[in-house]
Design a protein that fits this description.
Blueprint lengths: L1 H14 L5 E8 L2 E8 L3 H10 L16 E5 L5 H7 L4 E5 L3 H13 L5 E4 L2 E2 L5 E5 L16 E7 L1 H8 L4 E4 L5 H7 L2 H4 L4 E7 L6 H11 L2 E6 L7 H10 L7 H17 L5 H5 L4 E8 L1
Parallel strand pairs: 3-4, 3-9, 4-5, 6-8, 9-10
Antiparallel strand pairs: 1-2, 7-8, 10-12, 11-12
């Protein structure tokens, strides 16, 4: 817990977060968007989604998914806005009430009409559960038991695919619920999904990784589980430089990313700082049809 709090404080200081909103502008395939983002999530949204394109690895590219894209854990809509340029339809699920309002506002400001917003959480079990606040606006979770909470509707992957039809790409950022969702989904439903990109929160759940991979492989997916970018150096920095001008301004954030990743690479032979930074045991899952 202490390590996580220290890592959070460091990242918030680096990006200059003050607990407010930040308006950003970014480009996707020639189209520019304006988006209001809580500044406590700049690292997890702007860095991951815009500077690093974390869900586009292991052969997955957003430009290739032109059917229905499901954005589970949509937050304030950055990934949904990016996907809207390429996809015929985007379904954005976001359970947190504040994030959901911001998601709707960001879509309206950008005149995006092919994104359907769903106020709910991808999950299993009861039709209504409680969403617990996290350490930042991107960290609210069903997989908790204390703190401030909000009742939320639960949408199963079974009913989502049943209503939406075939899914071209399923993006998962659901803070630990990914294991129950995949485990509870039938093989027939999984076969209606062409690709999956998402986070695996493995702290305290390391034994579940193999079960997820096995389940997806048996449904006909080719699966890769990769470390976060802060375990690497060349790939994230080449992405940062490539995407530098696709995000307007935010010079402090960009320079902080450049400095932090370079410093981590330099001290790695002497001190395992990356493992200390990975307080959630985070890995990334990429699955696509063979």
């Amino acid at each position: 817990m202490i390590a996580r709090e220290r890592a959070d404080r460091l990242l918030q200081w680096l990006v200059g977060a003050k607990g407010g909103e930040r308006v950003i502008r970014f480009e996707e395939s020639g189209q520019w968007f304006r988006c209001s983002v809580p500044d406590d999530s700049l690292w997890g949204t702007v860095v991951d989604l815009l500077l690093f394109d974390v869900y586009e690895r292991s052969g997955l590219r957003l430009v290739d998914h032109k059917g229905t894209v499901v954005d589970a854990g949509a937050h304030v809509g950055i990934f949904s806005l990016k996907a809207s340029v390429h996809a015929k339809r985007v379904i954005a699920l976001e359970p947190h009430p504040n994030n959901f309002r911001a998601l709707q506002s960001n879509l309206a400001v950008n005149n995006v009409s092919n994104v359907t917003c769903v106020r709910g959480a991808l999950g299993t079990g009861a039709s209504e559960r409680f969403l617990f606040e996290g350490r930042s606006s991107i960290a609210a979770s069903l997989d908790a038991s204390d703190g401030r909470s909000h009742p939320v509707d639960i949408v199963s992957l079974e009913e989502l695919v049943s209503e939406a039809g075939a899914v071209d790409l399923l993006k998962l950022n659901i803070e630990g619920s990914e294991f129950e969702v995949i485990e509870d989904t039938s093989q027939d439903t999984l076969r209606k999904i062409q690709a999956i990109a998402g986070e695996l929160h493995l702290r305290g759940r390391a034994s579940l990784e193999k079960a997820v991979v096995t389940k997806l492989e048996s449904a006909g997916f080719q699966v890769a589980v990769l470390p976060p970018f802060f375990y690497l150096w060349k790939d994230p920095l080449s992405r940062l430089l490539r995407n530098w001008h696709r995000v307007e301004d935010l010079r402090r954030l960009k320079l902080s990313v450049l400095a932090l990743f370079t410093a981590a690479a330099a001290v790695e032979p002497f001190l395992d700082v990356r493992e200390r930074m990975n307080v959630e045991g985070l890995k990334f899952l990429y699955a696509r049809r063979r």
